[in-house]
Amino acid sequence: QPPRQPGEVHTTCPYCGVGCGVLARMDKDNRVHVRGDPEHPANFGRLCSKGAALGETTGLNGRLLHPRVHGQRTDWDTALATVADGLNRVIRRDGPEAVGFYVSGQLLTEDYYVANKLMKGYIGSANIDTNSRLCMASSVAGHIRAFGEDLVPGCYEDLERADLVVLTGSNLAWCHPVLYQRLEAARARRPGMRVVVIDPRETETAAQADLHLPLRPGSDVALWNGLFRRLVETDQIHRDIRPETEAADSNLKRILHEAGDADAVASACDLNPRALHLFYDWFAGTERTVSVYSQGVNQSSQGTDKVNAIINVHILTGRLGRPGCGPFSVTGQPNAMGGREVGGLSNQLAAHMGFSQGDRIRVQRYWDSPRIARQPGMKAVELFRAAAQGRVKALWIMATNPVVSLPDADLVKRALARCELVVVSDCIANTDTTGYAHVLMPAAAWGEKSGTVTNSERCISRQRAFRTPAGEARPDWWIISQVARLMGFDRGFAYGSPREIFDEHARLTAVHNPGPGMGGRTLHLGALAGMNAKQWDTLQPVQWPCPGPGLDTAGPGRGTQRLATNGGLPTEDGHPRLHPVCAETPGNTPDARFPLVLNTGRTRDHWHTLTRTGLSVSLSTHQPEPRCDLHPEDATRFGLADGHLVRVRSAWGSVLLRARYQTGQRRGELFVPMHWNDCYAAQARIGAVANPITDPISGQPELKHTPVAVEAV
Ligand code: SF4
């Protein structure tokens, strides 16, 4: 690595949940230069194509530079007062439940904290949800059922130390590239290590695996329950499973009752029986096993059950909490975890607390707030549905583009058109969503704002500013605080810096929190409370929990690498819980009208709805236009030619795409990237087609399984 350059700051990549450290600087011509931070424990100097191109996406091109009200440029005072007055008017007339916030895993933890505090503690409604609902909500729900709290027990190093890595519903090579690079480097060092990919598609990750199981979409629970049965039959039950307790014994028997034998599972999953037996043999015979899961598991009407089916086999075999072992959820966004920590999901209050009377009193006292939300609020899909029905009248959308990304996205358009007040704070001027805003507020972008993010291994890292905000852009926490003060909540929002907000959050995690074994919570940042300016400026990446002592004494070190080591979880007995689940078919299945199944996902070089990566020429050359991958036999069946335009229709909408033959597609299934929006390619918002049915527990929509029809145009 070259020595550190003058002016370089340590910051964190704003894209995926790997959370790579970046060294960034501006040169005298205002060009931004980035390289991987060799000291950051997530990436040790590596960057993927998106991270390496960050400098190409940070200019003024497309930026929202000034506040606007009804399309007209205005000053901050007018914009903030318009928002505050509008929210107060709706609350006075229709009550707090008529207001909704839709926030984002792109926000920093401090932004998230302030938005959540305003909504749940001052407005008094929990109708604040985040686009993490589309990403990780099923993992959150599964973690709470198994571990008593939303926690990831392992760390990235476990993938390197495992002898078997199972990637299920994860195209890691494209979606978490630097973590995949670490895995490949470990494979090169230890050729005996095996990688199994469970994915309906032959992705780039699957193509490089030792074994690929192209299962029938939605059949994951059958596959994992079958493995559970096989492990019991071959006496792989770990001593800590404690079948002597009535509940554990009952759960174990219920899972066995649901599980088929391997041949029945192969049939249910449409898999080659020999390949399935081989996977079961490898799993049964490999002590150090990590099972990585991501959106292919989460984005399902049975996502929470799928997560628990995976975790169950690790609990059964005792493979968690130790080096090279564990279920491992990789988050999609740079700060999906940080948002979950401060209560960004409508069903959590703050600091991993819920809506029990004790938690509500604890948080309200700490905030000294006039009220507190009484119950969980509406989840994302439900929130926009309520707006379309006129029950939610004011929406504030921060750093996200739901007109592209939510399922049934044309309903989102109708919802925004019906709202009396739509506020959008964003760093980009023209997105599919900003067009519906009555008030637009320019937010500071990556490189212009400071705070923290939490990555997939619970590692809190600093994002640091290295340039002044463009135009009149301001940090999101500042915008929210100003609106709160104008709404009459002056005392709770007199923040002067993100450090003050982080400090308040860190202290809240420690309030009445003696830790998991004592009836408390795992999320504990006590050691990070009370940082002075210098300690904040120099804060190194640290994995929570990091309960005291504070920085003034011993310092937090690197925090806690692994959880669930010898119990220590916030469950009744400190041990993880088996949760019986049974296989079900997806919520909407193909029929004569919509005979194919649509799957959506990421491409290698783009991020979310293209508002940033679309600015980079180098990133846009990888896949310059939206396309529809399909098997050549399906193309013949429907009279479609490779490279020609096709229309994909569902019960909710349609898109226009270019067909691409892919033999790695299962027959009967299409794959379309999630990124394109109407600003980049007309009629290519795949969200308009996507299935809005949700998991009944997590509320996560089924973005991987939409019945569709396809025709030539
Ligand atoms: Fe950024 Fe993710 Fe790439 Fe790392 S792997 S550089 S966090 S996009």
TrEMBL record:
This is Assimilatory nitrate reductase (NADH) alpha subunit apoprotein. The chain holds residues 6 to 718 of 904 of the full protein. GO terms for cellular component: membrane; oxidoreductase complex. It comes from the Bacteria. Belongs to the prokaryotic molybdopterin-containing oxidoreductase family. NasA/NapA/NarB subfamily. Its EC number is 1.7.1.1. Its cofactor is Mo-bis(molybdopterin guanine dinucleotide); [4Fe-4S] cluster. It is an enzyme of class 1 (oxidoreductase). One of its GO terms (molecular function) is molybdopterin cofactor binding. Residues 6-62 form the 4Fe-4S Mo/W bis-MGD-type domain. Keywords: 4Fe-4S, Iron, Iron-sulfur, Metal-binding, Molybdenum, Nitrate assimilation, Oxidoreductase.
